[in-house]
Amino acid sequence: MKKTISKSDFVPKTTDDIAQLQKHLGLFGYLNAEDCAHASDELPPEPDDEESTLEPNVIEEGKLDKPTIEALKKYQHFHCLECSGKLDEGTINSMGKKRCAMPDSIVAEFSAQGNKWNKTEITYGFQNYTADNGLTPAKIHQAIAQAFSLWAAETPLSFRLVNFSANPDIRIRFASGNHGDGASFDGRSGVLAHAFYPPPNGGALAGDAHFDEAESWTINIPTGSGKIDLVTVAAHEFGHSLGLRHSNVNGSMMFPSYSGPKRALHRDDKAGIRRIYGGYNIAHASWIHGTSVQIEYPERLQRIKRAGFYTYLYGKANTTNWFHFAIPTPVIVDKKRLKILCAILRFRTFSDNAIVKHVQIYDGYSKIASHNNINLSGNQWFTKFGVAHKPYVRWGLGISLGVEFKGGTVGSRRMDFVAAGCDLIK
Ligand SMILES: [Zn+2]
Ligand SMILES: [Zn+2]
Q1: How far is the CA of 32 from the centre of ligand 2 (A)?
Q2: CA 226/CA 54 separation, integer angstroms
Q3: Residue 19: CB atoms within 10 Å
């Protein structure tokens, strides 16, 4: 049967709908505000003007005119929708999603805004906190450090928490409505947060990240209905703080709209941030085989076997467990104390019935990084976990994995540990 487009495929377009569309396109960088201003201020073209036969490049509010259609097509292209130039259902759904307040750039994939920090050690601090959903300053510190650690793992940058009075480079703030920087928040839903590009952008505001206090922030996963994952949105905003614009790669951290928790960078984000800051030089890497795994609760395992230099095990149904790796640690190399860049794990689980929930990195007995609620399963053959502040190593590195075994068959609760390691820098 031949598919024809029926009238019902189109949503009725009232003048208000179009005005709303134009507002959205203007707000997020698709419709030029200057074009809008011309609409009322400029005189109509002279009749004998050569260009008068062309449609004038002005926007009339509430009219689906040429510039609006062109802007709409660009929006549709960026958001991987059919470039129909029509206000269709897919477009309406996309525009209704929660998103970042920063405008989209009209290019493919990642793009750099142009500014960057001219130093590698970046400080951050909190102007205030949110108390949503039981969040405490300590929990927020952990969540924000987790967000920074994603960018730290790909670049020479390190991120250190300092007091607000020490005038941090990146100032973090929860604010609602008009909060004095010319970019008001819009209450619950809609835009969630915004950030300022690196200096000299916006003077003292450069690098700062603001979160809409009207949202219901959480660090728990599942988040619960209507709640927003702070780690995900913070990781996205810090991408802007470091100089990245929005990416049109669906699934990337720098995609403009929010579609639930995302606690790892996409290949596109990594390529983007490395384009700005370059990679890093590893001074030393140290690894240990999967057979050296230490098990917190052996009685919660159904079976454990060693094969060659890896360990495979089956958790009992509905249990949690911790697995630890002590990494042989060169603390001083060539008379220099090393710093930790990241931990790397090689493991796999056989289904979602065995899930790595948390990865924590220790130096001696102090925890130096927490990657919580990451929910990893399947093949994880080279999965990196950054340390935001890249501290000097003092006592010896350890990696701990918190794992949840659900129901299902025994075979579906299998997990293989192949190796664990750390990259160290000078
Ligand atoms: Zn954004
Ligand atoms: Zn703001």
Answers
A1: 22
A2: 47
A3: 15
pLDDT digits (tens, 9 = 90+) for 105-130: 766 577 888 899 999 999 999 999 99
pLDDT exceeds 60 at position 164:
yes
209's CB contacts (< 8 A; 6+ apart) are 170, 171, 172, 173, 193, 194, 195, 196, 234, 237, 238, 240, 241
* pLDDT of res. 108: 58
Looking at this protein, which amino acid is placed at residue 281?
Answer: N
**Ligand at shortest distance from the CA of 209:** 2
Q: What's the CA-to-centroid distance between 185 and ligand 2, angstroms?
A: 7
- The token duo for 140 is 């927020």
Burial of 227 (0-12, 13-18, 19+ CB in 10 A): middle
Residues 139, 373: Cα–Cα separation, whole Å: 13
For the annotated catalytic residues, the residue numbers are 237
Please say if the pLDDT value at position 1 is more than 50: no
Report pLDDT for 47: 41
Q: Which ligand is nearest to the CA of 186?
A: 2
Q: What is the pLDDT of residue 61?
A: 83
> Nearest ligand, CA of residue 192?
1
SS3 291: helix
Question: For residue 392, is pLDDT > 50?
Answer: yes
Question: How many Å lie between the centroid of ligand 2 and the Cα of residue 42?
Answer: 33
268 contacts 111 by C-beta, under 8 angstroms? no
